Structure formats: structure tokens, C-alpha cells
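Co-fold these.
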Amino acid sequence: MSHDLAVARAATLRPIAAVAEAAGIPVEALEPYGKHIAKLDAGYLAGLKDRPDGKLVLVTAINPTPAGEGKTTTTVGLGDGLNRIGKRTVIALREPSLGPVFGTKGGATGGGRAQVLPMEAINLHFTGDFHAITSAHNLLAALVDNHVYWGNALGIDTRRIVWRRVLDMNDRALRAIVNGLGGGGNGFAREDGFDITVASEVMACFCLADDLADLEARLARIVVAYTREKKPVTAGQLNAAGAMTALLKDAIKPNLVQTIEGSPALIHGGPFANIAHGCNSVIATRTALKLGDYVVTEAGFGADLGAEKFFDIKCRKAGLKPDAAVIVATVRALKMNGGVAKADLARENLEALRAGIVNLGRHVENVRAFGVPVVVAINHFTTDTEAEHRLIADICRDEFGVEAVQCRHWAEGAAGAEELARKVVALCEGGTAHFQPIYADGLSLQGKILSIATRIYRADDIAVAPKAAADLKAFEAAGYGHLPVCMAKTQYSFSADPALLGAPTGHTVPVREVRLAAGAGFVVAICGEIMTMPGLPKLPAAEAIHVSEEGLIEGLF
Amino acid sequence: MSHDLAVARAATLRPIAAVAEAAGIPVEALEPYGKHIAKLDAGYLAGLKDRPDGKLVLVTAINPTPAGEGKTTTTVGLGDGLNRIGKRTVIALREPSLGPVFGTKGGATGGGRAQVLPMEAINLHFTGDFHAITSAHNLLAALVDNHVYWGNALGIDTRRIVWRRVLDMNDRALRAIVNGLGGGGNGFAREDGFDITVASEVMACFCLADDLADLEARLARIVVAYTREKKPVTAGQLNAAGAMTALLKDAIKPNLVQTIEGSPALIHGGPFANIAHGCNSVIATRTALKLGDYVVTEAGFGADLGAEKFFDIKCRKAGLKPDAAVIVATVRALKMNGGVAKADLARENLEALRAGIVNLGRHVENVRAFGVPVVVAINHFTTDTEAEHRLIADICRDEFGVEAVQCRHWAEGAAGAEELARKVVALCEGGTAHFQPIYADGLSLQGKILSIATRIYRADDIAVAPKAAADLKAFEAAGYGHLPVCMAKTQYSFSADPALLGAPTGHTVPVREVRLAAGAGFVVAICGEIMTMPGLPKLPAAEAIHVSEEGLIEGLF
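Predicted complex below.
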């Protein structure tokens, strides 16, 4: 059994009502899902509106590497650490996607003594939110083809249907299909395909919605197809938004669980961090801010993608004002950024560390450019050396002007994140945050892309494909120019080339294609190849997953 | 607002713990899903094993017509009626499928004062069981294509992959597709398609399994493809059964809800009644038998399909011994069987009634052929006349030798089904049941089909397509000859022609195709066109479904 699973199994979970009570949530506000998970009642949520907000802390990271950074683990550990030092703290996380669980071994609920529980339930169906999103998405798809089948009164051009279907499964065979085969009774044959559910625009709408009414309005705005005259056709014109909203009526309520140390965590929503914005729902974050004096939340991938979108899309649109950010790094990942192969990471290598730490330095600068004060968390691994940690601390202090704190929450739980928690409190209480997005709403769409590329990715320029440039103009002409842009770029590099680690400069960001997400409220700029339906590996984790005679799920970690 | 919805809204639901307590279920055995739904804990279920069984009553019906018979309504009403006269009764029902909810207006939770609640939740996602089945099914599909992609060690012939994909959605565009398009990275292009989730063999396995271990064994036996040498490839060979079982670990626990009158109801599983056996899970029925002195359950479609499969597949395999059966009919549906058009049903027509009642008479004979005593329930409609009811009662008594009881549970709840309840108790206590399947395990597969066709459908013969006949021989040679057969035939007629109402004779049943369901444990015989993925109508119910400002789902009824 893995260490993470052993720790999870050894933990004693409190009844969810006790977790809620400790967070000041009355038991009547709970809609339980089993004994250790509950949704929060809509009426209760509405009643929180006039309470003051707590402090908002974002956990982000350097560019991800195969070495692992531990962003979720640090988010959980920091939340536990804040509670340990007497700050009433609520954690807000994304829900894991079911598909990847069966691909590459590993869940998405933290690790060691910094986990959210019950991990099996959270990693599998949880409260069914993603299934509800899948259903709502595919209902709209069925209504599109059904409309065409029954006479196509709206004049949809079947070559220009842009609403694909989704499954929460890693299934490469469904990436590109032809549907409607088999004769006239099955409709009109056309090209189609499936994305994984986290890539659904319904997921993005769900995560940015203020409430159920706003969700319905967003869903109605989704563009599903174009006519031969290239006029958009929306979900609203198909009368689909009401039924989609009905399918999401329970899903929209945030899910309450606990960490191993008993901290309350709201886990809700989980949009892709490439073609979507990659953070948990606005509803969960706002609820957490009403319940906690501190809220610790995370964003997907590294800070170039995750934090940028958290700030420029989620915070801008939801009116959130982050008070501090934590940038997570590991000795191992910094050495990889410095050119060390994965097999050699266990050996001390101060030179490589010095070469790779430029990646961290740039992320620190970037986050500060949004007016958010930063602390660095170095997530401790057993192979790290004292000299390596000392070097990071020195460079951070002397060259980046930021404090780097060693964290041992994986091994020690809340105690291991206590120092980080104290630094975060000092940052928040220092009142130095003056959050602002990196670009203004009024800038042109291409100007917004250029702004992110040059100021965050440090590119010299962008190269927008002619069709993409024309589409951006068309979006502006159609009244979408005020939307923020959502960059879909490799997570492994500041550039669009996944092999360029460290802090590359002099590159150009190619904008291959742009897509309008009118419901979510952003324009997606696709820079390079972006996979929206993963495949399974040669030896899928699924082959080792089973239920033991004692009724326990084995093989999830 | 519809009458059904108004009644449902006016009902005061008891907390699910109170419903459980009344059924003798301790609160510790509950895994709540919201306030009014709970799953029953696996440990508690295991502990019931040595209790004696209650009486088992099947509710079935004449062949369905557009007039409506009210089988679910009568099942609920009878359960309430039995509780009203002091018999501790548990109702066991199928879970509704999500797809059809958005097609033709109407849920599947009964009507009037004979409903199971909360109807919105039951009709939409409920406890996620069907989503779990969808995920398990599609995981297996992804693993099949992934196996081929990574070298195809088992030698799967991609032209002979028989495992399609599923969605719980009415979506005709997905009936026939080509997948794996778009280049080498997406796999090998091949023909594929989607069925609705209720048609999944995973659903049939789920509903026939004794427990989680038996479910895993069944899943492992599923044949997903054949090699070029026509050797079967199973889910077990793909190491898929363990992960599929993990996905179904919670779903397998039966769901407890309540009727408007407060009777406990277990709603669990819902296989198609054409290519599968059409009744709720064996686990739910067995649990109900341990909890109630009486259990009222239903089977899909009319008695020619539903009751026959309930007896020959479910009862045979699970060792259940039904004590009585109720055959539901309405004045309107009998008149339709006698040739009256739907628009003319409100007018008294004794002649048509006399012509159409032969359908009922034959179902009565058929059910008795299984050794199960019968009572007829005439589900009262407001347009019925006294003379019509008298005629039915007379013919039933004088010509069919069976009692016909007028029921008013739709309007009056338990009180309206009290007389039916007393008749059912008398039948059960009479001890005249001596259940036996209509054919023996040892009969050849073709002999079993012939037996059902001649004894139940009253056909002169069957016409088995040459390929189907060869396949049946091959199934026998491969050791599957002992399995029961599952007939996939139109539900509208005893014959394979949906237009032949009443009690046709002299017909021949065509067996177009046969399929092995090795996991479920039956051989499907397809007689005529069987649709396994419905489409949406021109004006889908989805267009009228929405959430009101008060947070209530409108348009589901």
C-alpha cells in the first residue's frame, strides 16, 4: 500500500456535521451525501451574502515538471497550518476529473498528511457534479442535432456545429468521429468528437456563475453553431438552457469535506486549465470567504497559466481581491528546470538549482505585477539536502526579494506548514495587496493576448494566424471585445514550446486558433497543440484498481 | 401545473430516517443523499441474510398502448394499500432513465396520489447509479480501443468489437458513428455507436448480481470483441472488471425513498425491457423481502415481455418464488386493443371493450402458466363508465375465471387500492402459488425461443435467420446453452408486429439476430427492429423544463 493511502486509511474522519459545526455551518444547512460529504443548501448560501469576507490566499506554482511540485498538497497543508495557529480557515479546491484516475496512477486529493478525505469518493463520482455537467452538455448536443433532424428552422450549417460532446473518460478513440451514420432515421452525417468533461464550456460557465440564474443566462449565451451566413446560433435559441440548468440545480451547491487534520474544505468545479480558466467555482470561493477568516485556494498548472487566469478571469469577473499568493516549488523541480534528468534528481546539484531557479524568480515577479504579495513555499522531499534549501532561501531573499519557507506538511501535517502559515498571515495583515488585472477590459482582444505574452510569458511578440486574427475582429464586431482572453498554452514552459524550461526569452507565441466561449465569458487563444481529450497509457491504472474483500477500493494511489 | 405535480408538491415528506425506522431499518444503516433519499449500507444488507422472506407480488400489465395503463402507479398504490390494511409492505421499483425525461413529457415515478418522492430527484440524477453504470461501461470501451492502440496483444479484430458505448441521453446522432478518426494518434478508425445506458450489459449485470463479488465476476465474463479466429475476448482479459466494480461500489447499494403515503420504496437499477430483462435489481428485491411481510414489484412493458422475463430470468436465476401477480389494465387501453382510436377513448364503447379484452384474458392465462395466481386491477380513469367496469368484471369472472378489482389509488391513494390489497393478501395466503419457469435450463437455445413464442406469444412457429441459428449453435458449443433467453420484441403486440393488437394467433416470430450477454447471463433474441438509442421528438420536453425563481424544477410532468 502506498504511503498516501496508508495515511488516508489511518485517519479517523469526523461526521460531516461536526466539520460543518466547527466552520459555523448549522446542520440544517447540510445536504449529506453519505456520512462524510455534504452539499450546502441554497437558502443557507443566499443568507451569507452580507457577511464580511475573509482573506483570500492563492496557491500557485512554478511550471510543472515530472518531478512534482505538490500544489494541492501545499494548499491543504497551508489551510491546516492556518487553522493550527488559530486562524479560522476554509480550503477551496477543484474536483478531480474521473477520466485521468484510470490513466496515470494517482488521484488529486493531496498527499501524505495533507489530504482531503474521503479520497476514494472524491476521486471517483463524489457528489455527481461532473456527471451532471456531462449530462447538461450532452443534452445540448442532442438538441442541436435534433433541431437539424426535425427541419432545421434556425438554418444551422452542419459543417459549422462547434458544440462537441463530452465524457469524463480518457478515450482517444472519441476525439474525432463521424456521427449521424446509418441512414435517414439517424440524422445527417457530420464530423464531431468528444472532449473530456473538464473541457466543457458548461464546466466553465458553472465555475464562473454567481448563482443558478446567472448560470442559466450563461448557458443560454453559449454559441453552438453558425448558419451558412455565419450567424451564431445559441443554446438559448434552442430553448436548452432551462433543462440544462435543471440538471445542474443540485450540482451548483458547493461540496463540504474535511482534511486529515479536520479543516473544512469546499471542493467544487474543476475546469481545464488550458482551454478554460482552471480554478474551483466562484460560488465555492465566495462561500469560503464568508465562512473563514482565511481562504486558501489553488489554480491549475504553473502561475503563468493558472495564476494569470485566476487573476484576469476569475477575480476580475467575480470581484475577488486576493490578499496574498504562495508559489510552490520543490528542489527537485527547480533542478529539472536547470537541466537535470528525472533519474538524477536525488543527487545534490547546486549548480543546476541555481540554473533552474530563474523559473521561480520570474513567477514571483509576475504575480507581484498583479499587485499581490508573494511568499515561496519549498515543499520538502526526503532527497533534498540542507545546502540546497539554504541556496534557495538565499537566492530568493537576495535576488528575488521574497521569503522562501521550507514546508513539511506532507510528513508532518499542519505542524509542517506552521511557518508558512505565519508568513502568509503577515503578508495578508501587512495590507500591501492592491490587486489589479494585468490588462484592461477595453483593450482589443489581440492587445490582451499580446499583453499576456509579453508581460507574463516574456515573449518578444505573438504570431496570430490570419484566420485567428480575422476571428478576433469578428468577435469584436459582434460585441465580445470586452471579454478577457483565456490562453491555451503548454503548461511546461513560459513559451509555447514545452521543452524550453527555466526562463526563456526572445520567443514568439503562436496563436493558431481562437474560440469564443460566450457563455463562460472569455475568448480562448490556442497557442500550439492543445489536447482536450486525453488517452490512456499503455498500462492504464484501471488495470490495478479493484475492490478488496473488505470493500475497500485498492489501486487508486 | 399538472395534477401529478400539484399532488407531489402538496405532500409533506418525512425525513428518510423516519421512513427507514418505520421499515425497521436502523439509522446507522443509512447513507443519506440529501434529506429524503438514502442508500442502505453494505454491512447492514449482509446482516439481513438469515431473516425469512416476505411474500412477493409482481405487478404486470396488458400490452401497453398510448392510452396508458398505470403499472407503476398501481405498484405504488398497491404497496400503500397493503400498508393501510396492516401488512408491512416494501415497494421495489426500477430507477427512471434520464434520457427519456427530455423527450416525451413525463417522469416514471407514478401519478396522482400514488407516487414515489422526491420525484424531481428520482427522475433526474437520483443517487448517480446510472451515471456510475455509464462510466463503468465507457471505461471498458476505452480500454478496448486502448488495448488495440497499444499493440493489440489479444489480437482483437476491430471489425468484430461488439462493445458499443453508452450515454443516458436520447441522441439518435450517436446510434451509428465511425470513431478513431483524425490520424494515427487517435487510434484505428472503425464503426461504433452509442446505446442508451439502460441498454448496457453492465446494467443487466448490475441488476442480476447477488453482491459486489458476483457483479465483478459477471463483468469479467462480458464478451467485448472477437479475434480474427472468432475467439471471444472478455472484459476479464482486459483487466477491466476490477475498476468497473470500483465505479459501481456505491451504486450497488439499494436506494430508499417514500411514497406520498409514507410507504418505504427501494428504487434500484433499471434495465431495458427489450434487449434486457426489465426489472429492478435482485439486491433490491431480496432486501425488500427481508424487510417487508409483503413486497410489491413491477416488470417492464406487458406481461408477454416483462412478466415472462421476470419469471424466466430474474426469478429463475435469483431463486425467487413469486406468490401472486397483479395484471393492470384500463378501460381505455382495452378499448384501444378493441380498435378504438385514441381520440375516441372518452366515449363508452362496450363492443370495443369486449373485442379488446381478449388481450387481458391471454395475459391472465400466461401468468398462470408459470404457476402464479392472478388478480386483475382495473386502474380507474375519470372517463370510465359504470357499465364498462361491470362488463370487465363479468367477463373476467365468467370467461377468464379471475377477479377484476376497480382501483382508485390515483385519486384516493391507499384507500383506493384497499380492495385490491385484500384480494392480493387472499391470493398469497391461499398458498396456491407453485412457481416454475416456462422452460427448463436444459432445453436448447432455439427450443427456449420456440417455447416462449408458442406458449406465451401463441405464435405458430419461429423463423430464425440462418446467421442467428448458426450463432445459437456456436453459443451452445461454447458452453452457453444453459442460459435463459431474453426476447427483444415489440411491446405493443403479442406478435412481432406492433400493429397486431388484441390476441393474435397464426403468426410467426422472426428471430433476426441473437447476441450473447455472457456477463448478464442470457442470450438475447432480437425479433424485429429494436431501438437501443431513442431519439428526441420534434418538440422535446426539454424545451419546457426549467428552474423557477423559487428553485423548483418546472416542466418535468
